Amino acid sequence: MGDTKRSGAGAPEAGHSVVTYEVVDGVAWLTIDRPDARNALSKDVRDGLWEGTHRFVADDAAAVLVLTGAGEKAFCAGGDLKEMAETSLEIPPPDFLPQFGRNVDMPKPTIAAVNGVAYAGGFLLAQQCDLVVAAEHARFAVSEVKVGRGSPWAAPLSWLVPPRVALEILLTGDPLDAARAHEVGLVNRVVAAVELREQAQQLATRIASNAPLSVRAAKRTAYLSAESSLAEAYDRAEDIWAPVYRSADAQEGPTAFREKRTPVWTGR
């Protein structure tokens, strides 16, 4: 599959890192590795996610991030309820775990490869990624109403799916299977479990092959309508894309087309 670099990104638990980071052909894979605990968000996991997130943002060798969980049962089942009970956690602090685009700037694209249940905090992690690829057996739920917890992080949900669908997800706490999640627009594609990694890697590689400045500007543009009026979004989009038009890559694309070769992007 090309060049691969792997290392731990989280504190050790039972003799191994609970979050791992590896780069495969320009795609960073950040994996929660607590399958026996359904990849629940213990402190070690949260610390590892923060470390891996910062590492990806600074990693010039990685153009796209894929977030996933180890094993076949869970992407992430949410918070570690045993730990919450022991610490009597009330309101999670703002830096409880990375929320891409909210408490950490994430200019590069992110993909959630959902390999099982994505409940509560696991739903949060998938929601905050730009794209979602789900295994056929994946399930999604904002289950906080069933355990008396909160989900303020779900504020963007009614922008991602129709408002009445968002209300049903939030008020019932009932899970959606992968097919329903795809139907309502929460998931981009559903694949066989055995193909999940390959399909996510292929999608990420296609994105990584594009002009990096254009990719980052495209991502920013897509989110403008969630935070601005249409007129404001157009004005802000012009400002976002102006430096892209003026870049060396904007000249490289047409030149490579004329010369019938693959573009060589410099990100400048």
From TrEMBL:
Name of the protein described by the UniProt record: Enoyl-CoA hydratase-related protein
Family annotation (InterPro entries): ClpP/crotonase-like_dom_sf, Enoyl-CoA_hydra/iso, Enoyl-CoA_hydra_C
Alphabetical list of PANTHER family matching this protein: ENOYL-COA HYDRATASE, MITOCHONDRIAL (PTHR11941:SF54), ENOYL-COA HYDRATASE-RELATED (PTHR11941)
Coiled-coil parts of chain: none
Organism for this UniProt entry: Actinomycetospora endophytica
Catalytic activity: a (3S)-3-hydroxyacyl-CoA = a (2E)-enoyl-CoA + H2O; a 4-saturated-(3S)-3-hydroxyacyl-CoA = a (3E)-enoyl-CoA + H2O
SUPFAM superfamilies, alphabetized: ClpP/crotonase
Secretion signal span: none
Gene3D superfamilies found in the cross-reference section: 2-enoyl-CoA Hydratase, Chain A, domain 1 (3.90.226.10), Lyase 2-enoyl-coa Hydratase, Chain A, domain 2 (1.10.12.10)
UniProt KW keywords: Lyase
Family named by the database record: Belongs to the enoyl-CoA hydratase/isomerase family.
Pfam family, one: ECH_1
